[in-house]
Amino acid sequence: MLADHQFDIETVEKLEALFGQPAQASLAKELDHIDEYYRQWIAASPFLALATVGPDGLDCSPRGDPRGFVDVVDAHTVILPERRGNNRIDSLRNLISDPRVAMLFLIPGLGETLRINGRARISTDPALLARYAIDDKQPKVVLVIKVETIFFQCSRAVARAGLWDAARHVERSSLPTPGQILERVSQAAIDGAAYDAALPERVKTTLY
């Protein structure tokens, strides 16, 4: 059952009337630069979701590496190496036309998350590529991101999800595998069983 459109909220005034004003702490936590405490949070994170926007729509995709993989250059700049992926490069395509980015950092075991909004440029500077090599394999590009706002998000969402609670983790066998999905959506043009059989080794050998 879909919601009746007569109940849609279409103005900021109606939103504010419904939710009220944010508490002082919700506003005070937002900075236009990275301070020492937020720097420590970034250094502890091995994972983030990167959101971009472009002429063909929105994209939100995962990024992960050993913790501290996002390098804080100074109070207003971070660098994100672009590791090997599926070559769709949806995020990078978007950044060609619109430099705006949003990042949501997760830290395993913590309920709070960290948010950064800013603007990114795509760089192939040889010195930077060499600096962020892992196992002698360089990223093809890095994102140099100018930080415009940074703030932490409270733990309610992670607590409600039970994200770090092992008792609530999903058994992999309870869901379709990547191969099964690919075989179905490709109308059997892709052999799902063969894809699944090769996937663990392919992930292992193509991380970088």
TrEMBL record:
Signal peptide: which range, if any?
none
Pyridoxamine 5'-phosphate oxidase N-terminal domain: from which residue to which, for each copy?
Answer: 35-154
What lineage is this protein's organism placed in?
A: Bacteria, Pseudomonadati, Pseudomonadota, Betaproteobacteria, Burkholderiales
Which Pfam families does the entry link to?
Answer: PNPOx_N
Q: Check the record and name the Gene3D superfamilies matching this protein.
A: Electron Transport, Fmn-binding Protein, Chain A (2.30.110.10)
- Transmembrane segments annotated in the record for this chain: none
What InterPro entries does the database record attribute to this sequence? Pyridox_Oxase_FMN-dep, Pyridox_Oxase_N, Split_barrel_FMN-bd
Specify the species: Herbaspirillum rhizosphaerae
Cross-referenced PANTHER family: FAD-BINDING, PUTATIVE (AFU_ORTHOLOGUE AFUA_6G07600)-RELATED (PTHR42815)
Q: What is this protein called?
A: Pyridoxamine 5'-phosphate oxidase family protein
Superkingdom, natural source? Bacteria
